[in-house]
Amino acid sequence: MSELLTNGQVWALLGVVLAVILSGCGSAYGVGVAGQAAAGVVTEDPSKFAKVLILQLLPGTQGIYGLLVAFVTLSRIGILGGTAPDLARGLLIFAACLPIAFVGLVSARHQGRTSVASIGIVAKKPEQFAKSMLFPAMVETYAILALLVSILAIFLI
What is the CATH classification number for the domain harbouring 9? Predict the structure, then answer.
């Protein structure tokens, strides 16, 4: 067991796993709640399908960001390329994966709930679709910042 705790590649892989799982769980929740709201709108007015689908998909990006961080990391730690990290580098890579893991989880959940509210706007005033997209897009900003921090940190380690 102590061999695992002193293996840099294990720590780096733990960061990869957290980035994928947490951001993916957040996206699954966000897309799920937005999808429930979208389905209700489409039941009443099928012509609004495309607009509500776009709003439903927005919280899914955090899961993609977590996957992107995972691929970048795997290509640098000897799994898909690169060299296996020592303990210090493995811990740094683990830490570099945390921003997208946690911000991805939280922002996707909140973006899903914001998308639900925006879907409500489209249900009542479809001509306000462009404005309704701004609300969940503001939440997206923080996921993009976390993605940038994680990727820059991984490349600079």
Answer: 1.20.120.610
Count of other CB atoms within 10 angstroms of residue 65:
28
The tokens describing 120, both together, are 């409500």
pLDDT of 34-54, one tens digit each? 999 999 999 999 999 999 999
* Average pLDDT, consecutive stretches of 10 residues, N- to C-terminus, the chain (157 residues): 84 98 98 98 97 97 98 94 93 98 98 98 97 97 98 96
Task: Give how many domains the chain has, as a whole number.
Answer: 1
Reported as half-sphere exposure (CB side, CA atoms, 13 A), residue 64 has a value of 8
DSSP codes of every residue in the chain: -HHHHT-HHHHHHHHHHHHHHHHHHHHHHHHHHHHHHHHHHHHH-GGGHHHHHHHHHGGGHHHHHHHHHHHHHHTTBTSSSB----HHHHHHHHHHHHHHHHHHHHHHHHHHHHHHHHHHHHHH-GGGHHHHHHHHHHHHHHHHHHHHHHHHHHHH-
For the record, the structure tokens of 107 come out as 């922002």
Domain that holds residue 136: 2-156
> What pLDDT is attached to residue 1?
67
